[in-house]
Amino acid sequence: MKKYLIGLSVITILGTGFTALNTYRRVVNNSFGPGEHLEYRVHYGFLNAAEAIVDVSPTLYKVNERPCYRVNVDGRTVGAFDLVTRVRDTWRSYIDTSAILPQKFYSNIQENSYRKEENITFNHTANTVKAEERTERDIFKVPDNVHDFISGYYFLRTIDFSHLTNGQIIEVPAFYDDTVYNMKVRYRGKDVVKTKNGKLNVIRLHPVLPQNKLFKEEESIRIFVSDDANKIPVKVEVDLFVGSMVMDLKKNNNLKQPLKYF
Q1: Potential cystine with 204: which of 110, 117, 188, 231 (Cβ 3.0-4.6 Å)?
Q2: What is d(CA 154, CA 205) in angstroms, rounded to the nearest whole number?
Q3: How far apart are alpha carbons 240 and 44 in whole angstroms?
């Protein structure tokens, strides 16, 4: 099983006036850039359930002295679902432009009466993350090249899937909600999906899920990403114990290349 993990090294330079130089991994990224805008519709059967907007800021930000993409993900319930379960969630990741690693992560969760807001700062030299608002256990040890779940997804977009065989698993270390875990995604070959604008060639990716009471099987989530330089999700299918949900790409702007419908 091939793992796409590249190390972080610290190089000491003597006699130059510098004591240390942090050398990050370098990831070739031809898949996304500033200004990318994606809108999705989530439906449960015939009912519209939610909508999501994913934005890469048109400008770059300097975080931890590194140039970063700022990626915002906003999700909200709509229609009848909003009356039963009101969701207004925002996640934000500042992703290093050359290493495709997170420097900061922000979340603001509003789900019915539940509220949680948090800022996380990554230190890839020390392999730690810091929960900024905490007063107890605010520092967590993490592995090399650890991601948040947004930066992990953007890193997956940089992978050349043509070298993978059907069933091969990609692992990406991630940190979320005080926990280090491995994001595992199984490559399931290529396919074609129908959209309102025509058919698209896609790559099938199946996140590997732990056993739980929400999803039916280990591969209950199927992500269909465009088989081009963009590698954006154009459709997501989710099998639940109480039915199924589908997320479709509704609108896109400023992609690296136009989607090729046929």
Answers
A1: 188
A2: 14
A3: 11
DSSP conformation class of 87: B
Contact 220, 244 (CB under 8 A): no
**Residues pairing with 248 in the sheet:** 41, 235
Within 46-101, strands assigned E span 47-56, 61-63, 66-77, 88-96
Residue 50: Cβ within 10 Å count: 21
Which amino acid belongs to residue 221?
Answer: I
Model pLDDT for residues 65-105, shown as the tens digit of each residue: 999 999 999 999 999 999 999 999 999 999 999 999 999 99
Per the document, the length of the chain is: 262
Distances (CA, A) of 187 to 77, 154, 208, 220, 224: 30, 16, 10, 14, 11
